[in-house]
Specification:
- It contains 21 helices and 24 strands.
- An eight-stranded antiparallel beta sheet has the order 3-2-4-1-10-9-11-14, with helices on one face. Strands 5-6-7-8-12-13 form a six-stranded antiparallel beta sheet.
- Strand 17, helix 12 and strand 18 form a beta-alpha-beta unit.
- The chain is globular.
- It starts with a strand and ends in a 17-residue tail after the last helix.
- Bound molecules: fructose -6-phosphate (F6R).
- The site of fructose -6-phosphate has 15 residues, from helix 10 and helix 18.
Length: 609
């Protein structure tokens, strides 16, 4: 995700800001910028592209001073560009801000501010904060910031500068990390520890709602109600490499644990806070927009393709529109029956996968309308498609996709609900039931992620198996395919996924005493059938690890080991059920000592055919 740095002290601020931003480069970004107080005003320098671009620009137009803020941006609202890069200021750079996260009510705020005469230059949600500060300015920096925070909704880490207070930075956070680095005669702000550990290892870790007033000499922290907070100094003893991974051993594990937030952020874009109605402003479909669609074609590669398989169940069962899911590299070469009555959805984390891009171009050439679900603003696929829905996973560094997958599934479920409501196939009660359970997903993910001891033990016990099979029926079959891919790509164990009912048509011949079988049992409509399939493999002395709901009393009866997930709607279950599979793959890879984040022969972005 984006990175924030800030400095106030006796040294050259820009020098630290560039140093700190460079330490955050590993997180991925598309533009960078700094703001410094110099000659009675706040000067902003920002550039699209790498920090090298910003550094070159700073050589042409230097900024000097002892206080400043900086940012690396990963686009969410508005494409990567100089003007959309942070910092953002009001028309006079009276207030200047950097922001990580999403301001959910920015459209309403922007409209109000425009009506009052504020002129916006960027497409970002962040710019409203600077204008709002100016609009609500009381002459007291802290009071103004508190008024602004009472007005904005969403998730954020924010750092503010105010031209009238040239020795003070203010920062705050909600659902996004922010720390203060404590120095001698200088203090630092950062969204992540790597940015500051070369300068100090003593930090304050801000909690949600806390506001820090930072000067060179002191850091004062207050809580939401304005009461002083007695912060404890947290001494960071991580190495620089551990700090990049937020203390996790691998990026993959970090990204698995980032899923509750990534999911919450993705939902926040498409579920109205007040009415809990599902919406897609970027699509703005009316009933007639769906009337001409005879078929939906979903095409993607790898994990994104698996998200597409899950979406087939969603769209067909919720919106009752036929869906075909195709591997992108196959689609192009099969003389597909695509025409103007086909609606093509492509899914891609990177937005750069060459096969997916080519499939999209082919579908468009044949007359289909298109929509991209991607995690990367301004990517080739985002630009090529007629419309785009962005997932809010933030940059994914580990080659094995985790949070990108779950956010794709979330976006696709919301899209199916949106379609079902527009074409009248989804009842209001069913929409409510799905949304209610979706909103509980982040918390339920936390529950799963907190209880991993059994998964570690299974991974130790079965991590040296030669073959592992994943079985499931209905949507669980699609989830089984993703679990199998995760295991094989990072642990190098041979793994296959099968529809439960398909075993007896061939694969059962491979099941012998001791073969580990991961069985998903989250779909009540096919539960009894699934238990029959489990009995088929148990009779051959396979070791069955079952994944089912916590309130399913039969699970223990049929499987050797049970992994339980919180009860949820059948369409929401794939999002929860994949978490133990990701963790199982991760811990199996640890058992085998493989290179988890960079598995052999694989690349994060596949830009060749
Ligand atoms: C597996 C994985 C890959 C990608 C695939 C498509 O964990 O990450 O299978 O899903 O290469 O990549 P994107 O989504 O970038 O198009």
């Amino acid at each position: 995700m984006c990175g924030i740095v800030g400095y106030v002290g006796f040294q050259d601020a820009a020098e630290f800001l560039i140093e700190g931003l460079t330490k955050l480069e590993y997180r991925g970004y598309d533009s960078a910028g700094v703001a410094c107080y110099t000659d009675d005003r706040i000067e902003i320098r920002k550039k699209v592209g790498g920090i090298a671009n910003l550094t070159a620009y700073l050589q042409e137009r230097p900024v000097h001073g002892h206080i400043g803020i900086g940012h690396t941006r990963w686009a969410t609202h508005g494409r990567p560009s100089d003007v959309n890069a942070h910092p953002h200021g009001d028309e006079h750079n009276h207030y200047v801000v950097v922001h990580n996260g999403i301001i959910e009510n920015f459209m309403e705020l922007k409209r109000d501010l425009q009506a009052k005469g504020h002129v916006f230059v960027s497409e970002t949600d962040t710019e409203v904060i600077a204008h709002l500060c100016e609009e609500l300015d009381t002459g007291d920096f802290l009071e103004t910031v508190r008024k602004v925070l009472a007005t904005v909704e969403g998730s954020y880490a924010l750092a503010f500068m105010n031209r009238d207070f040239p020795d003070t930075l203010i920062c705050t956070k909600k659902d996004n990390p922010l720390i203060i680095g404590l120095g001698e005669g200088e203090n630092f702000i950062a969204s992540d520890i790597p940015a500051i550990i070369a300068r100090t290892r003593d930090t304050y870790i801000l909690n949600d709602g806390e506001i820090a007033v930072v000067t060179a000499a002191a850091v004062r922290v207050i809580d939401r109600e304005g009461r002083p907070v007695d912060k404890k100094v947290h001494h960071v003893d991580w190495s620089a490499a551990a700090a990049e991974k937020g203390g996790y051993e691998h990026f993959m594990l970090k990204e698995i644990y980032e899923q509750p937030k990534a999911i919450r952020d993705t939902m926040a874009m498409h579920i109205r806070r007040d009415t809990q109605e599902v919406y897609f402003d970027e699509l703005g479909w009316r009933p007639e927009d769906l009337q001409g669609i005879r078929k939906i074609l979903i095409t993607a590669c790898g994990t994104a393709y698996h998200a597409g398989l899950v979406a087939k169940y969603y769209i067909e069962q919720i919106a009752r529109i036929p869906v075909e899911v195709d591997i992108a590299s196959e689609y192009r070469y099969r003389e597909p029956l695509t025409d103007a009555a086909t609606f093509c959805i492509v899914i891609s984390q990177s937005g750069e996968t060459s096969d997916t891009l080519a499939a999209l171009k082919e579908a468009k050439r044949l007359g289909a309308r298109s929509l991209a679900i991607t995690n990367t603003v301004g990517s080739s696929i985002a630009r090529e498609a007629d419309a785009v829905v962005y997932t809010m996973a933030g940059p994914e560094i580990s080659v094995a996709s985790t949070k990108a997958y779950t956010t794709q599934v979330i976006a696709l479920l919301l899209l199916a609900v949106y379609m079902g409501r527009i074409n009248g196939k989804l009842s209001h009660a069913e929409e409510e039931a799905i949304v209610r359970d979706l909103l509980a997903v982040p918390e339920k993910c936390h529950q799963i992620l907190e209880d991993v001891d059994d998964l570690k033990t299974f991974a130790k016990n079965y991590g040296f198996a030669e073959d592992v099979f994943f079985i499931g029926r209905s949507i669980d079959y699609a989830v089984a395919m993703e679990g199998s891919l995760k295991l094989k790509e990072i642990s190098y164990i041979h793994a296959e996924a099968y529809a439960g009912g398909e075993l007896k048509h061939g694969t059962l011949a491979l099941v012998v005493s001791g073969t580990p079988i991961i069985a998903l049992v989250t779909q009540d409509a096919v539960k009894e059938k699934m238990y029959s399939n489990i009995q088929e493999v148990s009779a051959r002395e396979a070791i069955v690890i079952g994944i089912g709901f916590e309130d399913d009393p039969e699970l223990d009866h049929f499987v050797r080991h049970a992994i339980r997930i919180p009860r949820t709607h059948r369409f929401v279950a794939p999002i929860l059920a994949v978490l133990p599979l990701q963790l199982l793959a991760y811990y199996a890879a640890i058992t085998r000592g493989t290179d988890v984040d960079k598995p052999r022969n694989l690349a994060k972005s596949v830009t060749v055919e």
